[in-house]
Every structure is written in C-alpha cells, then in structure tokens.
Amino acid sequence: MRVVILFGSELGTSETVADCVADELSSHDVSIYDMTDFDPGDLDRTDFHVIICSTSGDGDLPTGAEPFFDILDATSPDLTGLHFAVFGLGDSVYGDTFNRGGEIAAEKLTECGAVQVGEHARHDASTPVNPKDMAREWVKTLPIPALTAR
Predict the structure, then answer these.
(1) Which one is predicted more confidently, 146 or 75?
(2) Percentage above 70 pLDDT, the chain
(3) Contact yes or no for 7/32 (Cβ under 8 A)
(4) By CB atoms within 10 Å of each CB, which of 16, 18, 26, 91 scores lowest?
C-alpha cells in the first residue's frame, strides 16, 4: 500500500514534520506533497493518506492548504473507502481555536466519505515537545495495513 503524505503549512513546520514522517516510513512506498501542489481529484482510495496540517489565524487552515480544501468543497468527491490519519499543529495559547486546522481537514475529508483512523495527533507549540519527535512516535501507532502486517 502506498502512503501519501499531504502537508499544509504556513511557516514550514508541517513540511518538516512531513519529511520526518516519510523518513519513519522509508521502507514503504511513500510520496510527499504540499497541498498547494496536489489536486484532490488525485486522491486514491487504495493509498493511505497522512495529513499534516498547521493552524493559522483564528483557527483557520493554513494558506498552503486552502486551495486543496476549496476544490474539495467545490467538487465534493466520493471518498468512500479512503483512509487517512491527521497530525495537527497549533498553539494552545489560542484556546478554542487550538489545532483547528487539522480538525477542519479531518472534517472536510470525512464529509466526503473518507475514514479517519488512528489517534488525531495535536502538537502544541507552547510545550517543549519537539513536533518531529512527537510525529516519530505517532506514526508508529498508525493502523496502516502495510505497517501493521510487519
């Protein structure tokens, strides 16, 4: 099974985390895409998708993810059978909007019929936890069929 990592970033942290997750999955067929360069029409139900998404402004999607989800909203593709996991990035100083970017991404994908699996990771920039370290541990817990079979 191919693993497709899609990242949406404002300042680049999501891209750094995506690279780290790809390194952890290097023994598998892994592709990484910036959401600005990925057409939602290319989402393949036979792939496992890892969404890495930061939060911007008042709990919004980052600029880099907006076009992807705008197209998804406009086309409403049937994503039944597509499985994905989410690693969100945010800062708890923003209270109610903490990590909202990743939550919006998950909501929009599930509205199209996709199924979120595994723990929805929520990194908090206000903690001393390094997002790459958190991602390394998180990815090991994902129920990706090709990973759990080993």
Answers:
(1) 75
(2) 96
(3) yes
(4) 26
For the question of whether the overall pTM of this predicted structure is more than 0.85, the answer is: yes
Distances (CA, A) of 65 to 79, 140, 141: 18, 25, 25
DSSP the chain: --EEEEEE-SSSHHHHHHHHHHHHTTTS-EEEEEGGG--GGG--TTSEEEEEE--BTTTBPPTTTHHHHHHHHHH----TT-EEEEEEEE-GGGGGGTTHHHHHHHHHHHHTT-EE-S--EEEETTSS--HHHHHHHHHTT---HHHHT-
The encoded tokens of residue 36 equal 């600005």
